[in-house]
């Protein structure tokens, strides 16, 4: 049974910009999907619909057994299951790394501070950055900040992780440290959907590559079919 299921999903921006066209997509638990395609083809919109950062207008979208609609409770439930990492790290600059990680678990998840901090430290270890816990984001490199952002998403113990061009804002020498963390997550069985141009990553990690163009899924295949010449 799929953990994510798009059925004939359509979305428009404004009245006439048709950004997602008849999207049919089923994602099984543990799948690692890379979404690629030209800029403006709807990749970011597609994954933002999964945690309802964007709304679709037609078709059905189910995530972890819940149909996404205007039901606020359903959306809250889904957001706990879906972690997201953005191109810009979106960390709170006036909070320490540790405080960035404990904020949502304490105030959304109602976890006591001690437990939230313990969980945060575990996740910081997982991305190998626990020694930076008391620093502020801007004291860290871009690669370190992005690993903090990944740890922050993991603190809500999501079942699904979405990555929207997570290495595009990084200097080249920092890309690998972020991809390595993502590769480890994939190895631990996390269901992942990654919008990325990193085709080496796709080849190493994805079980499926989806190619989008003008709001449609125009191709899906295992990575070797995309990247290996016959
Ligand atoms: P991609 O991730 O493939 O670059 P996006 O999903 O970000 O594509 O955007 C698809 C198209 O929708 C682009 O042409 C973009 O300018 C447009 N778009 C994105 N967000 C909005 C918005 N909030 N309002 C109007 N148009 C948007
Ligand atoms: P991406 O890196 O995903 O391609 P964009 O540069 O297309 O992102 O968009 C950056 C932000 O601006 C997104 O939050 C998107 O929703 C918004 N946006 C993009 N195009 C438009 C638009 N034409 N009108 C309003 N908002 C837009």
TrEMBL record:
It holds the Pfam family ABC_tran. PANTHER family: AMINO ACID IMPORT ATP-BINDING PROTEIN, PHOSPHONATES IMPORT ATP-BINDING PROTEIN PHNC. Keywords: ATP-binding, Cell membrane, Membrane, Nucleotide-binding, Transport. InterPro entries: AAA+_ATPase (IPR003593), ABC_ATPase_HisP-typ (IPR030679), ABC_transporter-like_ATP-bd (IPR003439), ABC_transporter-like_CS (IPR017871), MetN_ABC_transporter-like (IPR050086), P-loop_NTPase (IPR027417). This is Amino acid ABC transporter ATP-binding protein. Gene3D superfamilies: P-loop containing nucleotide triphosphate hydrolases (3.40.50.300). Belongs to the ABC transporter superfamily. One of its GO terms (molecular function) is ATP binding. Residues 4-230 form the ABC transporter domain. It comes from Pseudaquabacterium terrae. CDD domains: ABC_HisP_GlnQ.
């Amino acid at each position: 049974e799929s953990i994510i299921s798009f059925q004939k999903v359509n979305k428009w921006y404004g009245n006439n910009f048709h950004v997602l066209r008849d999207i049919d997509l089923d994602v099984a638990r543990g799948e690692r999907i890379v979404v690629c395609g030209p800029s403006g083809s709807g990749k970011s919109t597609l994954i933002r619909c999964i945690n309802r950062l964007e709304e679709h207008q037609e078709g059905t979208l189910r995530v972890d057994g819940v149909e996404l609609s205007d039901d606020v409770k359903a959306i809250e439930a889904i957001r706990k299951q879906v972690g997201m990492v953005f191109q810009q790290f979106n960390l709170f600059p006036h909070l320490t790394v540790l405080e960035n990680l404990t904020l949502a678990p304490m105030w959304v998840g109602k976890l006591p501070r001690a437990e939230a901090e313990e969980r945060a430290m575990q996740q910081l270890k997982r991305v190998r950055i626990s020694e930076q816990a008391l620093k502020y984001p801007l004291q860290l490199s871009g690669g370190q900040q992005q690993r903090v952002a990944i740890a922050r998403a993991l603190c809500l113990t999501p079942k699904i992780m979405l990555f929207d061009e997570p290495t595009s804002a990084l200097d080249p020498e920092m890309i690998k440290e972020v991809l390595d963390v993502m590769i480890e997550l994939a190895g631990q069985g996390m269901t992942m959907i990654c919008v990325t141009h990193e085709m080496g990553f796709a080849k190493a990690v994805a079980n499926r590559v989806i190619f989008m163009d003008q709001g449609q899924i125009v191709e899906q295949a295992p990575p070797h079919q995309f990247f290996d010449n016959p």
